[in-house]
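Box 3.1 A note on notation
Throughout this textbook, protein chains are presented in two layers. The first layer is the amino acid sequence; the second is a token string describing backbone geometry. Keep the layers aligned when reading.
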Amino acid sequence: MTSYPKLVRDGFWSNNVGLVQLLGLCPLLAVTGTFINGLGLGLATLLTLVASNTIISMIRTLVRPEVRIPVFVLVIASIVTVIELSMSAYFHELYSVLGIFIPLIVTNCAIIGRAEAFASKNTVGRAMVDGFSMGFGFLLVLVVLGGMREIIGAGTLFAQAHMMFGEAARTLTFVLIEDYSGFLLAVLPPGAFIGLGLLIAVKNLIDRRLERRSVRQAAPSTQIAHAS
């Protein structure tokens, strides 16, 4: 049985939805023009994953195998509808910016995939941790990519924070480059692909360095074992 630390490590890094599984790329690339947009969609996806994993784990023994996928989709769609209506009521400006990508969370392969592959086969606690880890890992990719594109494309960070945190948050906007004319490629779809490719490359580089370090650390103990 998968341990809780491994669930967290897989969701955050080893099996990250955006960088390893490469799922949910349509909303990931479409809405990450700014940090706040990425944060808004990331939180909605995180809540959906946690809630759907938890509910599906709770009902896993009640659902017949023949109808499990339609039931899972119904659960996910219900959760997304609640989140969509709540965002429309309390964060309407952000909801308008994110547009169709909020209801499209229902079609995110990562959510139905975790429901089928993990939540339907594990306890509520493990399903909840798995949903949180996978959702938070996806959120991290969204905000890092959104922040990177916003800095390069507009020279700002946390622009339009008031859409999520209220009018007082307008002062949170950092202007990193004064009189910056902008870099259009960064905020266009090709910039999203390039940015995601760079993030994947950095992750793969870190993984290779960690692997080489673990091999070097394991070599002396192996030599001692052979000598004895």
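The two ends are 34 Å apart (CA to CA). Residues 189-227 form the longest helix (39 residues).
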